[in-house]
Amino acid sequence: MAVQEIKAEVFTTIPTEFLNAGKESSWGTANRPGDDVPSFLEGPSFDKNGDLWLVDIPWGRIFSISPDGDWTLRAQYDGWPNGLRIHPDASVWVADYRRGIVKINPATGDIQDIFATKRSEGFKGCNDLFFGADGTLYFTDQGQTGLHDPNGSVYRVPSGTSRLECLIGNGPSPNGLVTNIDETALYVAMTRACEVWRVPLYPEGPTKVGLFARLPAGVGGPDGMALDEAGNLYVCHVSKGRIFAYDPHGDDFLTIDCSHIGRAVTNLAFGGDDQRDLFITVSDANTVARARMPVPGRPMYSHA
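The structure assignment produced for this chain is given below.
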């Protein structure tokens, strides 16, 4: 089957007044030593009003972007926010590398810790999160894990509870995650292994976890992911400047080229009036790109 290629375009770039050019951050020093990191955008997610929310990891900032491309600083706090999702109650939930899972009041910007530890033990470094249709929370605890230390974790919190269930404890850098179309399995990006794992979901825990897709190797690997209404999976590659799309059987059928904008393609979200526009954080270019898709994105729980 021929693989279709779509070229992304720039939707919006972070305004100059929000760029911290020439300034040092603890996140930048640890993760991109020697580089100027004026921002590092991640975690795009749409609210019910059609505004795109996203994070700026090194500076602890939460932004929203209107459909017209106007930026608003919604919150700034002492943390490294990474993944972001809008909860059905309109609160903003963030997987924060330093603070665990936090909730942000969108009206005030106030921060509430939800899961700062697992029991009394700290997380390695939370990365991304996803809500199932019933409100079940899934999130990854990546830290500095990789092929040398395959001990990253994936957690589930059943809806209406505060019970942390560890689904995976041996992940080589678990990152982005999303359920399949009928929510019987969880896809998890394992960045340092350049793989996407398929985790069957049962009340008592997973079984027969397998390899769903293998991405090209490189400096980085798969990062954020999203699903369309046909069940196709879209996977960002954090060092190739591309998104790779796979059908429900794991066959690749489409790629989205962002390399003319930047190489650090980190995360994505479907939006627009008909949910066929894919919005993409190209983090090394301080940019949100956009590409028109043949199939609309799966309606998110936040739009119910």
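Interim note for the steering committee: The CA atoms of residues 183 and 194 lie 23 Å apart. The chain has one domain: 9-169+197-210+265-303.
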